[in-house]
Each structure stands twice: as C-alpha cells, then as structure tokens.
Amino acid sequence: MNPLNCFSLKGRVVVLTGGAGLFGRGLAAFLAGADATLVLAARDQKALAAVAAEENKRGHTVEVEAYDQGEEKSVRALCDRILARHGRIDGLVNNAVSRPMAGVNDPLDRFEASMRVNATGLFAMLRTFGSAMARKGRGSIVNIGSIQGMVGANLWLYEGTRHETVPDYFFHKGGMLNLTRYFAALLGPDGVRVNCVSPGGSLADQDPVFVKRYEQMTMLGRMAGPQDLGGAVVFLLSDAAAYVTGANLAVDGGYTAK
C-alpha cells in the first residue's frame, strides 16, 4: 500500500462553503486537486460558477449550490439536495463567514447580523450535516477558524493603518473552537470526526505598515499565501487523520507559538 493514498479524497463528496473568497478559492483548488467530488455552496452563485468552471477545465468535478447560512431552511434544503444527488456527504468544510462590522462602535444590529450567520448559522450547518453523516456512520467536518479565536487582539498591528480589528470576529472564532469540541464528542460514536483549522493572516490588499508588523510576529517572517491552508484541510478530511478529532490546528507561520 502506498501511504500517500490515505491523503486522497477520491470518491469522496465534500461540501465547501464560501468557495470563492480569500481562503475559499485556494481551498477549492486543493480539494478538487485531491480528487474530491466538490460541492461549492454560497449565496453568490456567479462567483462560485467561475471557480467551478476553472476547476472543471482541469479535469476535476466541481458543482455549485446556492444557500443562505443565515436561514435554517436553506441549510437543510442544501443538505437534502446533495444527498438526493450523491446519496451521501463525506466531508464538510465550514468556511463561510459574514463580516458586517467595521469597528467596535458600530450599531448593535451589525453584531446581531454577524451572529445569525457565524454563530447560529454555523450551528445549523454542524447539526444538519453532522446528523446526515452520522446516519451513514462516517464523515469529517473541518471548521475554518482563525488565530483571532485563540489569542487576544494585538492593537499595535493596526495603529496608524487603514485597518481596524472588530470584536464579533473574535467572539465567533473563539466560540467555534468549543463548538468543534462539542460536536466532536457528540458525533464521534457515529464515526464522524470534527476538527478546526485556525489560519493566521493571509496576504491580500493590506496596508504595507500592517503587513510589515504582522510578518515580524510570525516565525516564518511572512503572511500566508493562497495555497498555505489547503494541505491542513485535506489532511483532516482524509483517512490520514482517521484518529484526529476535537483538535485545532493552527496554520499561522508560528504566530501563536511565540
């Protein structure tokens, strides 16, 4: 037996939410490249369709579904459609996130809006898809967290830049860690594993001052690129991680290890 075969997702049906954004596009490429039958799900089907078209041209199998994570009926309908088409769901990557807040002094309804998707909606995804996997006796769920769920805010990084850190993101990603552990305990006896991956900052269009400061906080001296998260997620979805559940894997260049 080739040990590398246990990292393959060939024959697996994997759902990735938010597959066109900062983390999502790189994750989509990795999951499709690992031979999964990949279902991309988000509200913006147009953006997802473009990702699917690119990956399908490479010979991969990528489908697109529309859903609203803030509505439980939509979450259930998404799960039902995938089960009707494929008969099972082997993996779920909870990557969708709503970012309505711009700062700590925003109106309270923006915090409440983020809760609907990032907290209540996450719970609906875990309960709905976790139950479907449990009925089949196997599955793997990977929640995409953040180092901001692991450590407090370093406000120095933002001083004098155009960026501001927001409280709701810290709240949701911190809660995600313990919700991961809860569902790992709940679903483990039914053969379903639940883990979390907590990425650090990913290079995008940040203020150069912020980037320089942030890179100084990592052991590798750089921010993450679009391909840095996928390997960890593929590992946790695959049989290579068959005895890993309830864990949080920091993919942050050593930021939280300092």
Assigned CATH class: Alpha Beta
- The CATH homologous superfamily is called NAD(P)-binding Rossmann-like Domain
Tell me what the CATH architecture is.
Answer: 3-Layer(aba) Sandwich
Q: Tally the helices.
A: 7
Series of H and E elements = EHEHEHEHEHEHHE
Low-confidence stretches: none
Q: Give the N-terminus to C-terminus distance in angstroms.
A: 39 Å
How does the overall form come out from the CA principal axes?
A: globular
Task: Let me know the largest β-sheet.
Answer: 7 strands, parallel
Give a quick summary of the entry.
The protein has 258 residues and is α/β, with parallel strands linked by helices. Helices cover 41% and strands 15% of the residues.
Structural notes for this entry:
There is one protein chain. The termini are far apart. The chain has one domain: Rossmann fold (3-Layer(aba) Sandwich), CATH 3.40.50. Strand 1, helix 1 and strand 2 form a beta-alpha-beta unit. It is of the alpha/beta class.
